[in-house]
Design brief:
This is Cation diffusion facilitator family transporter. Keywords: Membrane, Transmembrane, Transmembrane helix, Transport. It is a multi-pass membrane protein. The chain has about 300 residues and is mainly alpha-helical. It contains eight helices and three strands; from the N terminus they run αααααααββαβ. The chain has a three-stranded mixed β-sheet. Helix 8 links the parallel strand 2 and strand 3. The radius of gyration is 26 Å and the shape is elongated. The two termini are about 40 Å apart. The C terminus is likely disordered.
Length: about 300
């Protein structure tokens, strides 16, 4: 794995997201104001939040790429987790603004939608859906390959934008056919509810990493399988702890060795386990505590039957 190359790819694709969102934000808001469409303006606000989120993601992937220093001995991966939480809160704010404006227009009537200019809105929504589809695909590909929660959050932002843009496009077609302009506000509220659902998912994932929640069950099982490949070289292992910080994983456990095992031999065992963990789970930092086993069975910290006693 080339960490430097991964960091460069993350920054490049984050920059692409920034410029695409900047273009779409300006296009949607200008078109929405010209037509008087609250659904298009709401999409402009959504893209504006996506733009801000993309800027935050770009900043976070740059910071997370910095090596550990005296003040951040475990690296800067939490910047990505924090950015995911900030992005989610921005989404909640955007959804609140959209619902407020849409409800106000439904109650008061507001400005009438210009039916003559609806085609311009359809074109902008169509361009938005297509652009965000391809940019989100690129973001998600790099996010999965580099295990970046910041880029994955940004990709989900844009994937939601694809759906909402398509929904607004369909709504504009209905307004053009039926001339029922109140549908514009109804569509805007639906867009906002979809955005809130996205925000909940992002908050949950980001908060889990910030609170040092354990790695997924599948990842923990893989870690145990790798350790157990060396079962004939140690007596026991226990106190397995895992967590994630941005794209980085941290694994810690105690390895029990027969009491008379030389230090260099014990070190060779733990290095073999560590190398396999890093090979199969890139960006993993492993801390192993060596414990001597005196042959007493029934110890509460043991996870396996002690082989020293032949049981």
């Amino acid at each position: 794995m080339n960490t430097g190359t991964d960091d460069a790819r993350k920054q490049n694709v984050a920059c692409l997201s920034v410029f695409s969102n900047l273009f779409l934000t300006v296009a949607k808001i200008l078109t929405g104001v010209s037509i008087g469409s609250v659904s298009i303006i709401s999409e402009g606000i959504h893209s504006g939040m996506d733009l801000l989120a993309s800027c935050i993601a770009y900043f976070s992937v740059r910071k997370s790429a910095e090596p550990p220093d005296a003040d951040h001995a475990f690296g800067h991966g939490k910047y990505e987790d924090a950015s995911g939480l900030v992005e989610a809160l921005l989404i909640v704010l955007a959804a609140g603004i959209i619902i407020w404006e849409a409800c106000h227009k439904l109650i008061s009537g507001g400005e009438m939608v210009s039916l003559d200019l609806l085609y311009a809105g359809m074109i902008v929504m169509g361009i938005s859906a297509v652009m965000n589809f391809f940019v989100s695909q690129r973001l998600m590909k790099v996010a999965k390959e580099t295990e970046s929660i910041a880029l994955e959050s940004d990709a989900w932002h844009l994937r939601t934008d694809v759906l909402t843009s398509a929904g607004v496009f369909a709504g504009l077609v209905l307004i053009q056919i039926t001339h029922l302009v109140f549908l514009d506000s109804v569509i805007a509220i639906i867009v906002a509810l979809l955005i809130l659902r996205e925000a909940y998912s992002l908050i949950r994932r980001s908060f889990a990493d910030l609170m040092d929640e354990s790695l997924s069950e599948d990842e923990v099982i893989l870690i145990k399988e790798i350790i157990c490949r060396h079962a004939n070289e140690f007596t026991n292992f226990h106190s397995l702890k895992t967590r994630r910080s941005g794209p980085n994983r941290f694994v810690e456990f105690h390895l029990m060795m027969p009491h008379a095992t030389p230090l260099d031999a014990a070190h060779a065992v733990l290095k073999g386990i560590e190398n396999e963990l890093v090979a199969e789970m890139p960006r993993t930092s492993v801390i192993v505590h060596l414990d001597p086993c005196d042959g007493r069975c029934g110890r509460p910290e043991c996870t396996f039957v002690c082989k020293v006693m032949g049981k």
